[in-house]
UniProtKB/TrEMBL annotation:
InterPro entries on file: GH, Glyco_hydro_1
UniProt name for this protein: Beta-glucosidase
Organism whose genome encodes this protein: Filobasidium floriforme
GO terms of molecular function: beta-glucosidase activity
One of the protein's GO biological processes: carbohydrate metabolic process
Protein backbone atom coordinates (compact mmCIF):
# COMPACT_ATOMS: atom_id res chain seq x y z
CA UNK A 1 0.00 0.00 0.00
CA UNK A 2 1.30 3.42 -0.87
CA UNK A 3 1.89 6.23 1.61
CA UNK A 4 -1.02 8.11 0.05
CA UNK A 5 -3.30 5.14 0.80
CA UNK A 6 -2.39 5.34 4.50
CA UNK A 7 -3.52 8.97 4.56
CA UNK A 8 -7.03 8.17 3.25
CA UNK A 9 -9.98 8.39 5.64
CA UNK A 10 -13.55 7.05 5.85
CA UNK A 11 -16.35 8.67 7.86
CA UNK A 12 -17.33 7.28 11.27
CA UNK A 13 -20.59 5.79 10.01
CA UNK A 14 -19.00 4.00 7.03
CA UNK A 15 -20.11 0.36 6.70
CA UNK A 16 -17.55 -2.26 5.79
CA UNK A 17 -17.56 -6.03 5.86
CA UNK A 18 -18.25 -9.07 3.73
CA UNK A 19 -21.20 -10.45 1.80
CA UNK A 20 -22.81 -13.87 1.33
CA UNK A 21 -25.97 -15.19 -0.36
CA UNK A 22 -28.34 -17.90 0.88
CA UNK A 23 -28.02 -20.42 -1.97
CA UNK A 24 -24.24 -20.04 -2.00
CA UNK A 25 -23.67 -20.76 1.69
CA UNK A 26 -26.59 -22.19 3.64
CA UNK A 27 -26.92 -25.81 2.51
CA UNK A 28 -29.41 -27.84 4.64
CA UNK A 29 -31.86 -27.48 1.80
CA UNK A 30 -34.47 -29.85 3.20
CA UNK A 31 -34.23 -28.89 6.87
CA UNK A 32 -36.97 -27.38 9.03
CA UNK A 33 -39.58 -27.07 6.33
CA UNK A 34 -37.51 -25.47 3.58
CA UNK A 35 -38.68 -26.43 0.07
CA UNK A 36 -36.54 -26.61 -3.09
CA UNK A 37 -35.41 -23.55 -4.99
CA UNK A 38 -34.66 -23.35 -8.71
CA UNK A 39 -30.96 -23.50 -7.87
CA UNK A 40 -31.40 -26.81 -6.00
CA UNK A 41 -33.02 -28.24 -9.12
CA UNK A 42 -30.69 -26.70 -11.67
CA UNK A 43 -27.39 -27.42 -9.91
CA UNK A 44 -28.32 -31.10 -9.67
CA UNK A 45 -28.75 -31.53 -13.42
CA UNK A 46 -25.77 -33.07 -15.23
CA UNK A 47 -23.02 -30.68 -16.39
CA UNK A 48 -24.52 -27.50 -14.96
CA UNK A 49 -21.65 -26.83 -12.56
CA UNK A 50 -17.98 -27.07 -13.43
CA UNK A 51 -17.10 -29.56 -10.69
CA UNK A 52 -20.50 -31.25 -10.32
CA UNK A 53 -21.15 -29.63 -6.92
CA UNK A 54 -24.63 -28.39 -6.00
CA UNK A 55 -26.49 -26.46 -3.30
CA UNK A 56 -26.94 -29.37 -0.84
CA UNK A 57 -24.11 -28.44 1.57
CA UNK A 58 -22.21 -25.47 0.08
CA UNK A 59 -20.42 -23.97 3.13
CA UNK A 60 -22.84 -25.51 5.65
CA UNK A 61 -23.70 -22.11 7.08
CA UNK A 62 -27.15 -23.21 8.22
CA UNK A 63 -25.26 -25.32 10.77
CA UNK A 64 -22.04 -23.35 11.23
CA UNK A 65 -23.40 -19.76 11.32
CA UNK A 66 -22.40 -19.07 14.91
CA UNK A 67 -18.78 -19.71 14.01
CA UNK A 68 -19.13 -17.31 11.09
CA UNK A 69 -20.28 -14.54 13.39
CA UNK A 70 -17.25 -15.19 15.61
CA UNK A 71 -15.10 -15.06 12.49
CA UNK A 72 -16.61 -11.72 11.48
CA UNK A 73 -16.00 -10.35 14.97
CA UNK A 74 -12.37 -11.40 14.70
CA UNK A 75 -12.18 -9.68 11.29
CA UNK A 76 -13.27 -6.40 12.91
CA UNK A 77 -16.15 -5.73 10.48
CA UNK A 78 -19.06 -3.47 11.38
CA UNK A 79 -21.45 -4.79 8.66
CA UNK A 80 -22.50 -7.96 6.87
CA UNK A 81 -24.58 -8.48 3.76
CA UNK A 82 -26.69 -11.64 3.55
CA UNK A 83 -29.77 -12.81 1.69
CA UNK A 84 -32.90 -14.71 2.65
CA UNK A 85 -34.00 -17.98 1.09
CA UNK A 86 -37.59 -17.36 -0.05
CA UNK A 87 -38.39 -21.11 0.08
CA UNK A 88 -37.24 -21.30 3.71
CA UNK A 89 -39.73 -18.57 4.61
CA UNK A 90 -42.64 -19.39 2.28
CA UNK A 91 -41.79 -22.88 0.99
CA UNK A 92 -44.27 -22.80 -1.90
CA UNK A 93 -43.63 -19.11 -2.49
CA UNK A 94 -47.12 -17.81 -3.30
CA UNK A 95 -49.18 -15.09 -1.67
CA UNK A 96 -51.71 -17.58 -0.31
CA UNK A 97 -49.17 -20.24 0.65
CA UNK A 98 -48.27 -20.90 4.28
CA UNK A 99 -45.39 -19.19 6.05
CA UNK A 100 -42.77 -21.48 7.60
CA UNK A 101 -42.22 -20.28 11.16
CA UNK A 102 -39.07 -22.41 11.56
CA UNK A 103 -37.45 -20.52 8.69
CA UNK A 104 -38.33 -17.18 10.21
CA UNK A 105 -37.04 -18.29 13.61
CA UNK A 106 -33.71 -19.35 12.13
CA UNK A 107 -33.13 -16.02 10.42
CA UNK A 108 -34.25 -14.09 13.51
CA UNK A 109 -31.71 -15.92 15.65
CA UNK A 110 -28.98 -15.20 13.12
CA UNK A 111 -29.93 -11.52 12.72
CA UNK A 112 -30.22 -11.05 16.50
CA UNK A 113 -26.79 -12.55 17.01
CA UNK A 114 -25.42 -10.07 14.46
CA UNK A 115 -27.01 -7.19 16.36
CA UNK A 116 -25.50 -8.51 19.60
CA UNK A 117 -22.11 -8.67 17.89
CA UNK A 118 -22.44 -5.02 16.87
CA UNK A 119 -22.63 -5.96 13.18
CA UNK A 120 -25.16 -4.15 10.96
CA UNK A 121 -27.10 -6.41 8.57
CA UNK A 122 -27.66 -5.50 4.94
CA UNK A 123 -30.46 -7.84 3.96
CA UNK A 124 -31.28 -8.92 0.40
CA UNK A 125 -34.70 -10.42 -0.23
CA UNK A 126 -33.89 -12.19 -3.47
CA UNK A 127 -30.46 -13.41 -4.53
CA UNK A 128 -31.63 -15.77 -7.30
CA UNK A 129 -33.03 -18.76 -5.32
CA UNK A 130 -36.68 -18.66 -6.41
CA UNK A 131 -38.99 -21.29 -4.87
CA UNK A 132 -39.19 -24.14 -7.39
CA UNK A 133 -42.96 -24.26 -6.78
CA UNK A 134 -43.36 -20.86 -8.49
CA UNK A 135 -41.26 -21.94 -11.46
CA UNK A 136 -43.56 -24.97 -11.76
CA UNK A 137 -46.75 -22.98 -11.18
CA UNK A 138 -46.36 -20.20 -13.75
CA UNK A 139 -42.73 -20.21 -15.00
CA UNK A 140 -41.46 -17.88 -12.29
CA UNK A 141 -40.35 -14.44 -13.44
CA UNK A 142 -41.73 -14.96 -16.94
CA UNK A 143 -45.18 -14.38 -15.48
CA UNK A 144 -46.50 -11.17 -14.03
CA UNK A 145 -48.20 -13.31 -11.36
CA UNK A 146 -44.85 -13.23 -9.59
CA UNK A 147 -45.34 -9.58 -8.61
CA UNK A 148 -48.08 -10.17 -6.04
CA UNK A 149 -46.23 -13.20 -4.67
CA UNK A 150 -42.97 -11.28 -4.28
CA UNK A 151 -44.75 -8.35 -2.68
CA UNK A 152 -46.31 -10.62 -0.06
CA UNK A 153 -42.97 -12.40 0.56
CA UNK A 154 -41.33 -9.00 1.05
CA UNK A 155 -44.07 -7.95 3.46
CA UNK A 156 -43.59 -11.12 5.53
CA UNK A 157 -39.87 -10.29 5.73
CA UNK A 158 -40.41 -6.64 6.73
CA UNK A 159 -42.84 -7.78 9.44
CA UNK A 160 -40.59 -10.56 10.69
CA UNK A 161 -37.18 -8.89 10.63
CA UNK A 162 -37.83 -5.14 10.49
CA UNK A 163 -36.90 -4.62 14.15
CA UNK A 164 -33.44 -6.07 13.42
CA UNK A 165 -32.69 -4.63 9.99
CA UNK A 166 -32.60 -1.10 8.58
CA UNK A 167 -30.87 -1.59 5.23
CA UNK A 168 -33.03 -3.57 2.79
CA UNK A 169 -32.14 -4.66 -0.72
CA UNK A 170 -34.93 -6.09 -2.84
CA UNK A 171 -33.22 -7.93 -5.68
CA UNK A 172 -29.62 -8.84 -6.39
CA UNK A 173 -28.41 -8.07 -9.91
CA UNK A 174 -31.57 -8.31 -12.00
CA UNK A 175 -29.29 -7.78 -15.03
CA UNK A 176 -27.17 -10.87 -14.33
CA UNK A 177 -30.16 -13.00 -13.29
CA UNK A 178 -31.99 -12.20 -16.55
CA UNK A 179 -28.97 -12.71 -18.78
CA UNK A 180 -27.51 -15.83 -17.24
CA UNK A 181 -30.83 -17.54 -16.57
CA UNK A 182 -32.69 -16.67 -19.80
CA UNK A 183 -30.14 -15.75 -22.47
CA UNK A 184 -27.26 -18.18 -21.91
CA UNK A 185 -29.11 -20.64 -19.72
CA UNK A 186 -26.01 -21.11 -17.63
CA UNK A 187 -27.76 -20.13 -14.39
CA UNK A 188 -31.12 -21.34 -13.07
CA UNK A 189 -33.67 -21.74 -14.47
CA UNK A 190 -31.41 -22.48 -17.43
CA UNK A 191 -33.57 -21.22 -20.30
CA UNK A 192 -32.01 -20.27 -23.64
CA UNK A 193 -32.57 -20.49 -27.39
CA UNK A 194 -29.55 -22.80 -27.51
CA UNK A 195 -31.33 -26.15 -27.89
CA UNK A 196 -28.21 -28.08 -26.96
CA UNK A 197 -28.58 -26.57 -23.52
CA UNK A 198 -32.31 -26.28 -23.02
CA UNK A 199 -35.53 -27.52 -24.61
CA UNK A 200 -37.20 -24.21 -23.80
CA UNK A 201 -36.32 -20.57 -23.92
CA UNK A 202 -36.11 -17.53 -26.17
CA UNK A 203 -32.87 -15.62 -25.65
CA UNK A 204 -34.07 -12.57 -27.60
CA UNK A 205 -37.27 -12.01 -25.69
CA UNK A 206 -37.25 -13.67 -22.27
CA UNK A 207 -34.39 -11.77 -20.58
CA UNK A 208 -36.22 -8.48 -21.18
CA UNK A 209 -39.54 -9.82 -19.99
CA UNK A 210 -37.98 -11.28 -16.86
CA UNK A 211 -36.14 -8.01 -16.26
CA UNK A 212 -39.41 -6.12 -16.54
CA UNK A 213 -41.16 -8.35 -14.01
CA UNK A 214 -38.16 -8.10 -11.66
CA UNK A 215 -38.51 -4.30 -11.75
CA UNK A 216 -42.21 -4.55 -10.95
CA UNK A 217 -41.46 -6.95 -8.07
CA UNK A 218 -38.85 -4.56 -6.71
CA UNK A 219 -41.10 -1.52 -6.98
CA UNK A 220 -44.12 -3.25 -5.40
CA UNK A 221 -42.02 -4.36 -2.44
CA UNK A 222 -40.68 -0.82 -2.02
CA UNK A 223 -44.19 0.62 -2.15
CA UNK A 224 -45.32 -1.73 0.58
CA UNK A 225 -42.23 -0.94 2.69
CA UNK A 226 -42.75 2.80 2.35
CA UNK A 227 -46.48 2.69 3.03
CA UNK A 228 -46.57 0.20 5.87
CA UNK A 229 -43.16 -0.13 7.50
CA UNK A 230 -40.69 2.65 6.80
CA UNK A 231 -42.08 5.11 9.26
CA UNK A 232 -42.19 2.80 12.24
CA UNK A 233 -39.01 0.86 11.39
CA UNK A 234 -36.94 3.81 10.21
CA UNK A 235 -35.11 1.88 7.51
CA UNK A 236 -34.35 2.37 3.83
CA UNK A 237 -34.61 0.22 0.73
CA UNK A 238 -32.97 -0.11 -2.68
CA UNK A 239 -31.94 -2.35 -5.55
CA UNK A 240 -28.57 -3.99 -6.28
CA UNK A 241 -27.24 -3.73 -9.85
CA UNK A 242 -24.10 -5.31 -11.26
CA UNK A 243 -22.09 -2.49 -12.82
CA UNK A 244 -19.04 -2.78 -15.02
CA UNK A 245 -17.13 0.31 -16.05
CA UNK A 246 -16.87 0.69 -19.84
CA UNK A 247 -13.92 2.89 -20.78
CA UNK A 248 -13.96 4.20 -24.36
CA UNK A 249 -10.99 2.72 -26.21
CA UNK A 250 -10.07 6.17 -27.50
CA UNK A 251 -11.74 9.56 -27.83
CA UNK A 252 -13.12 9.06 -31.32
CA UNK A 253 -16.77 10.06 -31.51
CA UNK A 254 -17.88 6.53 -32.40
CA UNK A 255 -16.13 4.91 -29.43
CA UNK A 256 -17.31 7.60 -27.01
CA UNK A 257 -20.89 6.97 -28.13
CA UNK A 258 -20.36 3.21 -27.98
CA UNK A 259 -19.19 3.48 -24.36
CA UNK A 260 -22.15 5.71 -23.47
CA UNK A 261 -24.58 3.26 -25.00
CA UNK A 262 -22.82 0.37 -23.27
CA UNK A 263 -23.17 2.00 -19.84
CA UNK A 264 -26.78 2.94 -20.61
CA UNK A 265 -27.70 -0.65 -21.38
CA UNK A 266 -25.47 -2.65 -19.02
CA UNK A 267 -26.31 -0.55 -15.93
CA UNK A 268 -29.11 1.75 -17.09
CA UNK A 269 -31.36 -1.18 -18.09
CA UNK A 270 -32.35 -1.35 -14.41
CA UNK A 271 -31.20 1.95 -12.94
CA UNK A 272 -32.93 4.27 -15.41
CA UNK A 273 -36.42 2.85 -14.76
CA UNK A 274 -36.01 3.18 -10.98
CA UNK A 275 -34.67 6.73 -11.31
CA UNK A 276 -36.42 8.14 -14.38
CA UNK A 277 -39.36 5.73 -14.93
CA UNK A 278 -38.29 4.20 -18.27
CA UNK A 279 -35.53 2.25 -20.02
CA UNK A 280 -32.64 4.29 -21.46
CA UNK A 281 -33.57 5.99 -24.79
CA UNK A 282 -30.58 4.42 -26.59
CA UNK A 283 -31.61 0.92 -25.40
CA UNK A 284 -35.18 1.56 -26.51
CA UNK A 285 -33.80 2.12 -30.01
CA UNK A 286 -31.33 -0.78 -30.02
CA UNK A 287 -33.72 -3.33 -28.54
CA UNK A 288 -36.82 -2.06 -30.31
CA UNK A 289 -39.54 -4.66 -30.12
CA UNK A 290 -37.84 -6.60 -27.30
CA UNK A 291 -37.94 -4.20 -24.36
CA UNK A 292 -41.43 -4.23 -22.84
CA UNK A 293 -43.28 -0.92 -22.48
CA UNK A 294 -44.20 0.53 -19.10
CA UNK A 295 -47.83 1.55 -18.70
CA UNK A 296 -48.18 5.00 -17.15
CA UNK A 297 -49.14 3.36 -13.87
CA UNK A 298 -46.17 0.94 -13.86
CA UNK A 299 -43.77 3.70 -14.77
CA UNK A 300 -45.01 5.78 -11.83
CA UNK A 301 -44.66 2.77 -9.53
CA UNK A 302 -41.08 2.09 -10.60
CA UNK A 303 -39.86 5.69 -10.81
CA UNK A 304 -38.23 6.87 -7.60
CA UNK A 305 -38.35 3.40 -6.04
CA UNK A 306 -34.82 3.48 -4.56
CA UNK A 307 -33.63 5.27 -1.45
CA UNK A 308 -30.10 4.36 -2.56
CA UNK A 309 -28.34 2.29 -5.18
CA UNK A 310 -26.54 -0.98 -4.37
CA UNK A 311 -23.60 -1.61 -6.69
CA UNK A 312 -21.82 -4.90 -7.23
CA UNK A 313 -18.63 -4.03 -9.07
CA UNK A 314 -15.92 -6.39 -10.23
CA UNK A 315 -14.09 -4.97 -13.23
CA UNK A 316 -13.56 -2.66 -16.21
CA UNK A 317 -13.39 -3.19 -19.99
CA UNK A 318 -12.38 -1.07 -22.96
CA UNK A 319 -15.30 -0.38 -25.27
CA UNK A 320 -15.26 0.17 -29.00
CA UNK A 321 -17.85 0.25 -31.74
CA UNK A 322 -18.25 -3.21 -33.21
CA UNK A 323 -17.25 -3.53 -36.84
CA UNK A 324 -18.23 -7.16 -37.33
CA UNK A 325 -21.62 -8.65 -36.43
CA UNK A 326 -21.92 -9.82 -32.83
CA UNK A 327 -21.57 -13.54 -32.39
CA UNK A 328 -24.72 -14.91 -30.85
CA UNK A 329 -23.94 -16.46 -27.49
CA UNK A 330 -21.05 -14.16 -26.65
CA UNK A 331 -21.88 -13.11 -23.10
CA UNK A 332 -21.96 -9.37 -23.58
CA UNK A 333 -24.14 -9.10 -26.66
CA UNK A 334 -27.27 -8.37 -24.68
CA UNK A 335 -25.44 -5.53 -23.00
CA UNK A 336 -25.19 -4.02 -26.44
CA UNK A 337 -24.93 -5.90 -29.76
CA UNK A 338 -23.03 -3.07 -31.47
CA UNK A 339 -20.16 -2.73 -29.03
CA UNK A 340 -17.10 -4.83 -28.39
CA UNK A 341 -15.56 -5.30 -24.95
CA UNK A 342 -11.80 -5.55 -24.83
CA UNK A 343 -8.99 -5.99 -22.35
CA UNK A 344 -6.29 -4.19 -24.38
CA UNK A 345 -5.82 -0.45 -24.73
CA UNK A 346 -5.15 1.12 -28.14
CA UNK A 347 -1.42 0.37 -27.78
CA UNK A 348 -2.08 -3.29 -27.03
CA UNK A 349 -1.37 -3.10 -23.27
CA UNK A 350 -3.54 -5.24 -20.99
CA UNK A 351 -5.96 -3.27 -18.87
CA UNK A 352 -4.83 -4.89 -15.61
CA UNK A 353 -3.63 -8.15 -14.06
CA UNK A 354 -6.12 -11.01 -14.32
CA UNK A 355 -6.99 -13.33 -11.43
CA UNK A 356 -8.57 -16.75 -11.30
CA UNK A 357 -11.79 -15.80 -13.13
CA UNK A 358 -11.52 -14.11 -16.49
CA UNK A 359 -14.09 -11.39 -15.78
CA UNK A 360 -12.08 -9.85 -12.94
CA UNK A 361 -8.93 -7.80 -13.51
CA UNK A 362 -7.36 -5.28 -11.17
CA UNK A 363 -8.40 -1.92 -12.65
CA UNK A 364 -8.94 0.39 -9.66
CA UNK A 365 -9.16 3.57 -11.74
CA UNK A 366 -12.18 2.11 -13.55
CA UNK A 367 -13.96 1.78 -10.20
CA UNK A 368 -13.22 5.43 -9.38
CA UNK A 369 -14.65 6.55 -12.72
CA UNK A 370 -17.71 4.37 -12.25
CA UNK A 371 -18.44 5.93 -8.85
CA UNK A 372 -18.16 9.48 -10.22
CA UNK A 373 -20.29 8.66 -13.28
CA UNK A 374 -23.01 6.94 -11.26
CA UNK A 375 -23.33 9.75 -8.74
CA UNK A 376 -23.34 12.44 -11.40
CA UNK A 377 -25.93 10.67 -13.51
CA UNK A 378 -28.30 9.17 -10.95
CA UNK A 379 -27.78 11.26 -7.77
CA UNK A 380 -28.49 8.39 -5.38
CA UNK A 381 -26.40 7.48 -2.32
CA UNK A 382 -24.27 4.45 -3.16
CA UNK A 383 -23.80 1.21 -1.25
CA UNK A 384 -21.05 -1.03 -2.58
CA UNK A 385 -22.68 -4.38 -1.93
CA UNK A 386 -20.10 -6.64 -3.63
CA UNK A 387 -16.52 -6.20 -4.79
CA UNK A 388 -13.86 -8.88 -4.91
CA UNK A 389 -11.51 -11.16 -6.81
CA UNK A 390 -10.06 -14.66 -7.07
CA UNK A 391 -6.28 -15.15 -7.03
CA UNK A 392 -4.67 -16.71 -10.11
CA UNK A 393 -5.09 -20.52 -9.95
CA UNK A 394 -6.37 -20.16 -6.40
CA UNK A 395 -8.22 -23.47 -6.42
CA UNK A 396 -5.04 -25.35 -7.34
CA UNK A 397 -2.77 -23.80 -4.71
CA UNK A 398 -2.18 -26.27 -1.87
CA UNK A 399 -3.17 -25.48 1.71
CA UNK A 400 -1.77 -23.59 3.61
CA UNK A 401 -0.01 -21.60 0.85
CA UNK A 402 -3.45 -20.65 -0.49
CA UNK A 403 -3.99 -18.50 2.61
CA UNK A 404 -1.36 -16.05 1.37
CA UNK A 405 -3.73 -14.30 -1.06
CA UNK A 406 -1.67 -11.31 -2.17
CA UNK A 407 -3.60 -10.82 -5.45
CA UNK A 408 -6.82 -10.37 -3.45
CA UNK A 409 -5.04 -8.04 -1.02
CA UNK A 410 -3.86 -5.87 -3.88
CA UNK A 411 -7.33 -5.84 -5.42
CA UNK A 412 -9.28 -5.09 -2.22
CA UNK A 413 -6.95 -2.42 -0.83
CA UNK A 414 -6.73 -0.59 -4.14
CA UNK A 415 -10.50 -0.70 -4.62
CA UNK A 416 -11.05 0.47 -1.04
CA UNK A 417 -8.67 3.39 -1.75
CA UNK A 418 -10.90 4.32 -4.69
CA UNK A 419 -13.93 4.40 -2.38
CA UNK A 420 -12.14 6.74 0.03
CA UNK A 421 -10.99 9.01 -2.81
CA UNK A 422 -14.52 9.13 -4.26
CA UNK A 423 -15.88 10.12 -0.84
CA UNK A 424 -13.28 12.89 -0.73
CA UNK A 425 -14.56 14.12 -4.10
CA UNK A 426 -18.06 14.32 -2.64
CA UNK A 427 -19.55 11.03 -3.89
CA UNK A 428 -21.78 9.66 -1.11
CA UNK A 429 -20.50 6.07 -0.86
CA UNK A 430 -21.85 4.52 2.32
CA UNK A 431 -20.45 1.00 2.34
CA UNK A 432 -17.81 -1.38 1.05
CA UNK A 433 -19.14 -4.91 1.41
CA UNK A 434 -16.67 -7.28 -0.18
CA UNK A 435 -17.32 -10.58 -1.90
CA UNK A 436 -17.06 -12.83 -0.03
CA UNK A 437 -16.94 -13.76 3.63
CA UNK A 438 -15.90 -17.31 2.75
CA UNK A 439 -15.23 -19.35 -0.35
CA UNK A 440 -18.63 -20.62 -1.41
CA UNK A 441 -20.81 -22.18 -4.08
CA UNK A 442 -20.06 -19.92 -7.04
CA UNK A 443 -23.04 -20.84 -9.20
CA UNK A 444 -21.91 -22.52 -12.43
CA UNK A 445 -18.30 -22.49 -11.23
CA UNK A 446 -19.28 -24.73 -8.29
CA UNK A 447 -16.54 -24.64 -5.66
CA UNK A 448 -13.76 -23.91 -8.15
CA UNK A 449 -13.81 -20.09 -7.92
CA UNK A 450 -12.71 -19.15 -4.41
CA UNK A 451 -13.76 -15.55 -3.73
CA UNK A 452 -13.55 -15.72 0.08
CA UNK A 453 -11.33 -13.95 2.58
CA UNK A 454 -11.82 -17.24 4.42
CA UNK A 455 -10.68 -20.57 2.97
CA UNK A 456 -13.16 -23.44 3.15
CA UNK A 457 -11.87 -26.99 3.36
CA UNK A 458 -14.70 -28.78 1.56
CA UNK A 459 -13.06 -32.15 2.28
CA UNK A 460 -13.08 -31.63 6.04
CA UNK A 461 -16.53 -30.59 7.15
CA UNK A 462 -16.22 -27.12 5.61
CA UNK A 463 -13.66 -25.99 8.19
CA UNK A 464 -12.86 -22.27 7.95
CA UNK A 465 -9.34 -20.79 7.75
CA UNK A 466 -8.80 -17.01 7.52
CA UNK A 467 -6.77 -15.90 4.53
CA UNK A 468 -4.22 -13.11 4.94
CA UNK A 469 -6.57 -10.61 3.26
CA UNK A 470 -8.95 -10.77 6.25
CA UNK A 471 -6.22 -9.46 8.57
CA UNK A 472 -5.02 -6.87 6.05
CA UNK A 473 -8.51 -5.43 5.52
CA UNK A 474 -9.08 -5.37 9.29
CA UNK A 475 -6.02 -3.18 9.75
CA UNK A 476 -6.85 -1.22 6.59
CA UNK A 477 -10.22 -0.10 7.95
CA UNK A 478 -9.17 0.11 11.61
CA UNK A 479 -6.59 2.70 10.74
CA UNK A 480 -8.76 4.70 8.30
CA UNK A 481 -12.24 4.98 9.78
CA UNK A 482 -12.50 8.28 11.68
C1 LIG B 1 -23.13 -12.31 -7.61
C2 LIG B 1 -22.56 -13.28 -6.59
C3 LIG B 1 -21.40 -14.01 -7.22
C4 LIG B 1 -20.33 -13.01 -7.57
C5 LIG B 1 -19.02 -13.58 -8.09
C6 LIG B 1 -22.09 -11.58 -8.40
O1 LIG B 1 -22.53 -11.45 -9.71
O2 LIG B 1 -24.05 -11.47 -7.00
O3 LIG B 1 -23.57 -14.13 -6.17
O4 LIG B 1 -20.95 -15.05 -6.45
O5 LIG B 1 -20.83 -12.15 -8.54
O6 LIG B 1 -19.16 -14.30 -9.25
Amino acid sequence: MSASSAALRFPKDFHWGYATASAQVEGSIDQDGRAPSIWDTFSRLPNKTLDGTDTTVTTDTYVQWRGDIELMKSYGVNSHRLSLSWSRIIPLGGKDDPVNQAGIDWYREYLKALVDAGIVSHLTLFHWDLPQALEDRYKGFLSRDIVADFERYARVCFESFGDLVRDWFTINEPNVFSMMGYLFGSHAPGRTSNREKSAEGDSQREPFLVGHNLLLCHASAVKSYREEFKQKQGGQIGLVVNMLWGEPLDDSAENLTAADEFMAQSSGWFIEPVVFGDYPPSSRKIFEGHLPKFSAEDSALVKGSCDFLGINHYSTFYIKRRTTPAEPGVPWTILHPAVELGIHDKHGNEIGPVGGVNFVRIVPWGFGKLLDWTWKKYQLPIYITENGAVCPNENDIPFPDVLDDHFRIEYLTKYADQVAMAIQRGVPVKSHLMWALTDNFEWQEGHTARFGVTYIDYEDDCKRYPKKSAAVMKEYYRSRIE
